[in-house]
Design a protein that fits this description.
globular; alpha/beta; TIM Barrel; eight-stranded parallel beta barrel; single chain
Length: 361
């Protein structure tokens, strides 16, 4: 059985002895080659904002309805999920709705967000009424946890790490795969273009990966450089440092980046040791910029599919399969199975005079 995520074991040993539930989840969210091609649709507030902006552009008044958000999520899922290894959804508008509508194809994993949508800087907490146990109970393939991180703020970091540990313990108890996402954020008086924030962001990403890595099965990380302004040498150096800091397989998040720029980030990250992508808005954001249902569907069936195929091609060519990161083979995983694994590794007591068994099985 896998050892506690809080205990320091070698990365290879961790995956060699990964529990069956977590290993099944890991295979369930990757393609046949062990690479991640995940479609991220767990956003709640951003979907509402996109739809509200579209309504205002068209002169429509009123609040965004539940049905509008669900429709958008399910339509994007139906068109693009067949090209993904897994889909990431939220409990509010997407997860059960996608299951019940058969929007997710057979063989595509279901990753479900566990945290509530909160502003950066606030301590993480569970979505009200939601839990790791409920994700496992409904058949989720994996749990996703987002934590906003500012390692220069000790109080905020302690609060976030306490939540990380709690979720990790719950995932260990339920034997379900845990993917942890870090996100940097500007401090009060800053924005994402403020020089001080831009300067400290790469180091924040790397140190965050080091902190949360022991509690995660998979890491979802930001691109650790400014591809617009940094030199090629600096970009490569930062990617190499991040790959070294990540003791778990890691995937690259899109963070709402424009698609063409994100595609460049993907190729560079995959060449540096990344194992795939978990992308959302970079793929589908313009879906909300067209005005009719027909145009939205056409966007997904043309541009959306083209973008998914392009990212998948980059991942297939350059991404490092999770098992190759630790030079693991199926043979090694097989031989690591203890004959008494279902007794939690403890050899069962055998009576001196065992009962005669006459069953056929």
């Amino acid at each position: 059985m896998a050892k506690s995520a809080a205990k320091q074991v070698s990365p290879k040993d961790y995956f060699l002895h990964l529990t069956p539930g977590k290993l099944a989840g890991l295979r369930g969210v990757t393609d046949a080659g062990g690479r991640f091609k995940v479609l991220a649709l767990d956003q709640s507030n951003s979907f509402r904002k996109f739809i509200k902006a579209a309504m205002e552009r068209q002169g429509k008044k009123g609040d965004v309805s539940y049905d509008q958000v669900v429709h958008a999520k399910l339509e994007i899922t139906e068109v693009l999920a067949p090209l993904a290894s897994a889909v990431l959804l939220d409990v509010n508008y997407g997860a059960r709705q996608a299951v019940n509508s058969f929007s997710i194809p057979r063989g595509v994993g279901l990753i479900i967000r566990v945290e509530a949508s909160r502003d950066a800087g606030l301590p993480g907490e569970f979505e009200p009424g939601w839990s790791v146990a409920k994700i496992k109970k409904m058949g989720g393939t994996a749990v996703k946890l987002l934590v906003y991180m500012d390692v220069g703020d000790p109080k905020a970091t302690r609060a976030q790490m306490a939540f990380v540990k709690r979720v990790a313990e719950d995932c260990q108890k339920e034997d379900i795969l845990l993917m942890i996402e870090e996100l940097s954020y500007p401090r009060k008086g800053e924005d994402k273009r403020t020089p001080a924030y831009v300067a400290r962001r790469p180091d924040n990403i790397m140190k965050s990966a080091e902190l949360i890595g022991p509690y995660a099965d998979i890491l979802k990380l930001e691109f650790p450089a400014d591809i617009r302004n940094d030199s090629n040498d600096k970009v490569e150096k930062n990617l190499a440092a991040l790959d070294k800091a990540a003791i778990r397989p890691w995937v690259l998040l899109s963070a709402g980046e424009k698609f063409d720029l994100f595609a460049k980030q993907v190729e560079l990250a995959m060449k540096a040791g990344c194992s795939g992508t978990m992308a959302g808005r970079a793929i589908f954001q313009e879906y909300f910029d067209v005005n009719t249902p027909q145009e939205q569907k056409r966007f997904l069936e043309t541009t959306g599919i083209e973008r998914m195929n392009r990212l998948n091609g980059i991942v297939a060519q350059y991404a490092l399969p999770w098992f190759k990161r630790y030079e693991l083979s199926s043979r090694e995983l097989f031989t690591a199975v203890d004959p008494h694994w279902y007794f939690n590794g403890k050899i069962p007591k055998v009576n001196a005079r065992p009962k005669v068994v006459k069953g056929e099985y």
